[in-house]
Amino acid sequence: MADQTVVPEPPLIEGRGITRLYSMGDSQVAALRGVDFAIRMGENVAIIGPSGSGKSTLLHILGLLDRPTTGTYLFAGVDTDTLDDDRLALLRNRAIGFIFQSFNLVSGESALENVAAPLVYAGVKRKERLERAEESLARVGLSDRAHHDPSQLSGGQRQRVAIARALVTRPAVILADEPTGNLDSRSSADVFSLLQELQAEGLTLVTITHDQRIADRAVRVLRVEDGILVEHGAPAPTYLDGAELQGPTTAPGTPPTGVVVPAQSGLASLGLTREDEQ
Amino acid sequence: MSFVEALRLALRRLGTNPLRTALTTLGVVIGVASLVALIGVGEGTQTAITNQIAGLGTNLLSVNAGSSVVGGVRGAAGSASTLTTADAAAIATLPGVAAVAPEMAVSNVVVVNGRTNSTTSLTGTTPSEASVRNYQIQTGTYLTDLSVTKGLRVAVLGPTTVTDLNATPTSIIGQTITVNGIPFSVIGVTQPKGGSGFTNPDDVVFAPISAVQSRLTGASTLRTIGVSLQDPSQLAYVESEITSLLRYRHNLASSASDDFTMVSQDQLLSVASTTTATIRNFLIGIAAIALVVGGIGIANTMLVSVRERVREIGTRKAIGARRRDITRQFLVEAVIVTLGGAVVGVLLGIAVTGLVGSAVNVPASPTLSGIALAFVSALLVGVVAGYWPARQASRLDPVEALRYE
């Protein structure tokens, strides 16, 4: 980090002209129609937009679960188009933590096993795995629920287990898809403040949300409408609903300013090796 | 994901739904148990039949009368009566021949003892029958040379015949029975040889050939001549000697076919074991089908399981599982179910082998090769049955999988 002043840090995530088309019978539907964005390490970004606008598709592409139809997606400076499925899985395992609206914990497995699951795919030995999972659970304040089945936990607790799972590999970025969407207001507040704390500690946080507080707290709001990014500036403090929004602060298709892409960058900088790789 | 992790995961998963796991396993249990039991019983039956045939006499060669080829159809052995006691006497002089027993057979004779009667078969023969056909005496004596030369009306009974006549081996000695109305006095009872069916060697009456000829048949032709060899390795030699001798004695032209046939005990044994092997293989085939059906059950359950766990698969992919990790997880699950079934099946099969063996009175015991075969087949079935669902799971698109309700 000492050379940060000399060499500009590349954006962690960068998209250029990303489109995503789906075939629906004979016709094609464009979920994303040319999107450019850049997210730096440590940023707190909210993706908002009406349903069907393409924000989930965008998050799936950010999370390397899906590939753009056209356009370039760079993760840590690496063109993800050049990576095979196993490499993408490795990146998801090491560099990305997912949080889902419906938690997606595996029932029949204890909270601790759920949290430790990503480390299984990272090839971490069981003892270390459980230690790290315990640490992670402690971080979200659920040490006392380690051996509970997800079905024995409240919604808020489940989401905190999911957050612990996302944190356990110490990823570069957390991608959260409506993390408070299935929670009551109290649990919502818990999860919300936990995410904000983590972000404040240096984690990159990208959240799809309808939650006004998350949008308000985000350093930057990416607003998606009809497959196009119509805004990537700071959130409007009075933002309430899509209809009341002002026009885009940046013209669609224009690359975000201040982005410097170094010629040389690599996954090695993230320490991406799988321990069980031959 | 390492194999150990896949194993741990699979065991936890299978433990969450024990009833389903048990039911899925049942198909394999039944398949493996049938394989083990049928192979065990099959081997036991084969051993029993082999022993039984060996018990009929060792180094034995049977010369049967007849077997003329008429219009391309070979008549049943013994259907034409060409053998005589003189033939038997001539064979006895051949080198390599230990003993010769002429056999004049009368089937379906009615034997009456007091108010009890029984239908059996009678063999008119000589004392050498006992050594040729390997009969031991239980009570009394066997036929003597004297009884043959004098044509005495004496009889030696098989133990089954004695029982059928409502008597015991000791009580029947000295009794007079009638055979097709002709009185014979019982002088001995043979040792049981074990056996059943219409060729039961224990359901028989022996009488001096001279008495049978004069009192019962009136004919001088034999059905069979039993020949025992000094040395089994001389079988082919003795066979060709007997053939030349009989062809000469029967004045057969060189173009004529033999008017007798010869069957050695070895040939009988091989025919019997071929037959039992065929039956055994047929049964094993049925058991294998049961195992395959068990495999289909596993494949089905695994497909259902994949369908139920689409979101879990999506989640696992999101947190870093590669295709091969997912494949391994489901494949290991299928193989564990199969192996569990195989272990239970082997134990059940061993128990069933014992039960069936004692029920049908066959010395059945589970064989190591049978168990190994069943186990390996089950493993193969598990891998094949698990592979397709596992592949389905690994190929799910993570975005679709995460959206799946």
Gross morphology of chain A is globular
The CATH architecture of chain A comes to: 3-Layer(aba) Sandwich
Provide the structure class of chain B: alpha+beta
* Secondary-structure element series of chain B: HHEEEEHEEHEHEHEEEHEEHEHHHHH
**Range of helix content of chain B:** 55-70%
How would you write the strand order of the largest sheet of chain A? 6-7-8-3-9-10
The top-level CATH class of chain A is: Alpha Beta
Gyration radius of chain B, rounded: 33 Å
CATH superfamily of chain A: P-loop containing nucleotide triphosphate hydrolases
Largest sheet of chain B: 6 strands, mixed, barrel
How would you sum up this structure, described in words?
The complex is a heterodimer of chains A (278) and B (405). Chain A has 278 residues and is of the alpha/beta class. Chain A has one domain: 3-Layer(aba) Sandwich (Rossmann fold). Chain A has seven helices and ten strands. In chain A, α3 crosses α4, α3 runs parallel beside α5 and α4 crosses α5. Chain B has two domains: 184 residues, no CATH class; 178 residues, no CATH class. A six-stranded mixed β-barrel of chain B has the order 5-6-11-8-10-9. In chain B, strands 2-3 form a two-stranded antiparallel ribbon. In chain B, a hairpin with a 2-residue loop joins β9 and β10. In chain B, α2 packs antiparallel against α9, α2 crosses α11 and α2 packs antiparallel against α12. The longest helix of chain B has 44 residues. Chains A and B meet through α2 and α3 of A and α1, α10 and α13 of B.
